[in-house]
Write a structure and sequence with these properties.
alpha+beta; 3 helices; flat; 50% helix
């Protein structure tokens, strides 16, 4: 199994963050390392909060029907990739996939 590199998602971009530190992600059922997750520092959190605050006015001004379409598209993508998501959860939490 290839190891995943899990980064932060800030302002529409994947980023390793400014902390420069990672931590192993283990499958608790097997003890195997399944990936590495980027750890955040205060600057990373501040950047994420600033990006969210900057994005909020445009989202708030978006008509409800458009917001609903975005959320339904998100639901469609979740359903399309549910097996991939289930496998990821299985690897991270040690739960049975079946």
């Amino acid at each position: 199994m290839t190891q995943a590199s899990i980064q932060h998602f800030i302002n529409g971009q994947n980023t390793a963050g400014q902390a420069g530190r990672t931590q192993a992600v283990y499958n608790p059922a097997t003890g195997a390392i399944t990936g590495q997750v980027a750890l955040a520092n205060r600057a990373d959190v501040d950047q994420a909060v600033a990006a969210a605050k900057a994005a909020f006015p445009a989202w708030a001004d978006t008509p409800p029907i458009r917001r609903a379409r975005v959320l339904f598209k998100f639901l469609e993508l979740l359903n399309r990739h549910k097996d991939d998501l289930a496998r990821a959860i299985t690897a991270e939490h040690g739960k049975v996939f079946g």
